[in-house]
Amino acid sequence: MCGAPPTVASNWRTPIRRSVSSSKTAKGVLFLDALRRRLGDDPFLQLMREYFSANTTRTVTAQSFLDKAGAPFAVDVEEGAAYLTTDIFPRLRSAILVYGTLRDAGANRYAAEQIQKQFLDRYESAVPIRKDFEVGDQDLRARDVVFIGRPEANSALAAWSKSIGLDYDEGVFRINGDAHASERDALAFAGKNPLDPAHMVLVVAGNDALRTVKLAAGIAEWKSGEYLFDRRWQGACCRIREAREMKVVIDKPQPRRLIN
To answer: What's the mean pLDDT in 62-91?
Structure first.
């Protein structure tokens, strides 16, 4: 991103609390960023100054700002971060879980079942689970697809990896050119369904079977936001860039206690 103008993806560092409303807040930030890029910096800043000056101490509505800007509230799915990982929660009615069978099949199936159980806390029906070889484009076109297992383990995800912008080769995934090859690394990746951008794709994958299961087990606690990735951190990091969000989880072993 060297030499490129700053965007919400490069500057936003505020964590967002987990909820459906947090997704709306995030999309509000993305809308303002898209509006700034569409208008240009100077006209956008002039718009903000005029709106602030005209409405200081007044109660305002979102619609009043949209009227002033002359723009509808919409995040262009062709540009910017169209989906967050947590956007899957309000989409469970049309969701489907697809787990990999090429490698780690038992662990991937277990991870899919753990995600299904957590989804039941939010939606009254069980999200269907399918094996990777059981689904084709027609089955996934009108779905919000959750892939479990990395591409070398999940043939359905491997077929879509290039079209969704996922760079994951065997046990190594890359973000902004940085390779994450540790067996303790895992990735939650959100993007557009390449067959219908009105639906999303969510990838839940670890560099080994255990990390896939551990990432899946904590899906209910995921939070959306923008954090600077640092290998020294313990816990979760995520990064919104272009039309996808990526959350990197580093699972470090706890220090052993010495017993005398």
So the answer is: 77
My answer on whether 208 and 149 are in the same domain is yes
Rg (CA), the chain: 20
Interhelix angle 20-39/41-55, rounded to 10 degrees, is 120
Is 75 domain-assigned?
no
Of 163, 103, 101, residue with least CA distance to 132: 101
Nearest CA to 30 out of 78, 72, 82, 66 is that of 82
Question: Which H/E stretch holds residue 18?
Answer: none
Rounded Cα distance between 8 and 25, Å, is: 13
Asked if 39 and 166 sit in the same domain, the reply is: no
Tokens of 103: 């490698």
pLDDT tens digits for 124-139? 889 999 999 999 999 9
DSSP 172: E
Three-class secondary structure of residue 250 per DSSP: strand
Write the single-letter amino acid at 31: F
Q: Tell me: pLDDT of 17 over 70.
A: no
Q: What is the CATH number of the domain that holds 137?
A: 3.30.379.10
Helix ranges, 148-250 (H): 155-164, 209-217
Structural domain span for residue 141? 85-250
Q: Are residues 144 and 232 in the same domain?
A: yes
pTM value? 0.63
Same structural domain for residues 31 and 159?
no
Residue 146 forms part of a structural domain = yes
Q: Which single residue is written with the structure tokens 């939650």?
A: 188
